[in-house]
Amino acid sequence: MRKTAINVRDGLINRVIRYPRAIASRLRIVRLRLLGVTIGRRCWIRRIHVPRNPWDIVISNGVALDDYVVLLTTGSRGNGPRLVIDEGTYVNRFTMFDASESIEVGRNCLIGPFCYITDHDHGTQPGDRIADQPLVGSPVRIGSGVWIGAGAMILKGVTIGNGAVVAAGAVVTHDVCSGEKVAGVPARVIGLCLAASGEKQAHRLEVSGV
User: CB of 104 within 8 A of CB of 144?
Assistant: First the structure.
């Protein structure tokens, strides 16, 4: 009985904490929609920052963006969005998306805190100041079911396959295949997720005729 009473009390306390945040999230969503951000249903939006170009951003159904996530896009209005976060993805605190070309994040991804995901960098031609050179961009694609650990960086031109895992603090400069686990600076393959390992084993058996 005592444990049940404690559980009931804890549940009530958590509701008291959550309800004002839920109301604030709904008001925040209304404001962002009015500014031009496309936001789906059942989203959970905390105190995020959209510095400019809200029309460049698409947030699909069920996405959760935690405190101080930054959604930054650069460039004049184009034919489509520069930043798309697909259904069911969760982005933890202080993560920044920096898009001048295109960044797409698949469904049901987990992105840790303090990550940086960008599709461009500065030109570095000799003879000119780097600050004066134009941005050099290439799209970034992150598949579905990807887990990106805290403090990881995803740089321009990278494609990450479905179900891949990026370790905390990794700097990803090249493509990551589906189901691969990568870590380090620069990131390299350190293993496979169980499902991907099974698929590759099945493929080897099929090729060998077993």
Answer: no
Q: Tokens at residue 113, please?
A: 């805190």
Contacts of residue 191, Cβ cutoff 8 Å, sequence gap at least 6: 180, 181
Contact present, 206 and 190 (Cβ < 8 Å): no
Q: What is the DSSP secondary structure assignment for residue 134, as one 8-state letter?
A: P
The 3-class secondary structure across 155-166, one letter per residue, is: CCCCEECCCCEE
pLDDT in tens, 57-109: 999 999 999 999 999 999 989 889 999 999 999 999 999 999 999 999 999 99
Look at residue 141 and give its three-state secondary structure: strand
What's the Rg (C-alpha) of the chain?
Answer: 20
The model's pTM? 0.84
Question: In whole angstroms, what is the distance from residue 73 CA to residue 84 CA?
Answer: 11
Gap between the Cα atoms of 132 and 122, Å rounded: 9
**Which residues on neighbouring strands pair with residue 141, listed in sequence order?**
104, 159
Q: Is 203 a catalytic residue?
A: no
Residue 101, phi-psi category: left (phi > 0), alpha (psi -120 to 50), beta (remainder): alpha
Of the residues 49, 120, 122, 203, only one is catalytic, namely 122
Domains of the chain, earliest start first: 36-208 (2.160.10.10)
Give 125's pLDDT tier (boundaries 50, 70, 90): confident
Cis peptide leading into 126, omega within 30 of 0? no
